Predict the structure.
Amino acid sequence: MSMFSHLEFDNHEKVIFVNDKSSGLKAIIAVHNTNLGPSLGGCRMWPYESDDAALTDVLRLSRGMTYKSAIAGLPLGGGKCVIIGDHRKDKHPELLRALGRAIESLSGAYITAEDSGTSVADMVTISECTQYVSGVMADSEHGGDPSPSTAYGVFVGLKSAVNYKFKRDNLKGLKVAVQGVGNVGFHLCKYLKAEGAELIVTDIFPANVERAVSELGATAVAPDEIYSVEADVFAPCAMGGIINAETLHKLTAKVIAGAANNQLSRPEISQILLANNVLYAPDYVINAGGIIDIAYQRSGEGKEALKCHIELIGSTLTSIFERSDSTGYSTEVVANQIAQERFEKSAD
Ligand code: NAD
């Protein structure tokens, strides 16, 4: 396993390998960049097939967090932690406390939060041993769950994309195809419905589809029909990699604006979308409401300030769309450029 020549290594400031014999903890913490502030990023627990797979994940994800926080205008850098193990079998309080001690030893360079395989309750356990944990505020608006804020940010971003593409400032009668009506997707549907949008939804979990149909009057389609259904906007809110060679030519929507992480199967797809006249709201820009919420839970600022910050996602996206139009670079490339300008400039 190489480190400095690793494909995903991108001048990370610190990579810490944690091995706690008594609890069985094996974890890697990566701090990508702290030019804008302490690094913040979730702690993922996953039974990685190899140590290298865990290292690859933590290097890639921590870098992504630097870009996400920078574009969201947060005074934070990018970091991530991965615990190697199965969260259903291997997770126990002593292991989490050992991780807490390791995080504390970094003196604030890395702040953790929940992610796949960890929960708000786990963060509370970790916080017994470190002050550098976010997303544990039981008295926050949603008890620590950032999904409603993510949904609100996607809603604001979707409206700004619709305004840019279709030159209209309301969603009345607009057809929005939502893939995945779980935590974020369902909340998003509620906002869309309130503004008069027509909802077309799908999910592999029938109860979630039923909830959207009965509570919001959505039209349900089968999972593989969501791309080709006639729609103005496609809102992916399930899993990544869904915009790919197979689905690209099926899409009828001229705007893609949704919460899912890593929506494009390959970076080059963003340029193809541009050529196809499809306006793509880069995923890590439009879904930043959650990280903004987590940052505000830590700073203790009020709900109004949080809402105002999330609403900036709309104007950030408009700047990205404008620069993409004037330069011919895809919206994804432009978002990366703006994020880089922010976190590299602050190092001067
Ligand atoms: P969730 O698990 O609550 O909801 C996802 C839904 O998608 C589920 O109902 C699931 O059944 C459905 N689904 C899975 N595979 C599907 C498929 N092939 N076709 C249709 N539906 C499918 O997750 P969530 O918290 O709502 O997050 C949704 C997406 O947004 C994820 O990609 C997540 O990484 C991303 N995201 C979430 C947050 C957050 O705050 N929760 C923040 C940023 C990004």
Summary: The mean pLDDT is 95. The chain has two domains: 14-59+77-126, 147-343. The two ends are 33 Å apart (CA to CA).
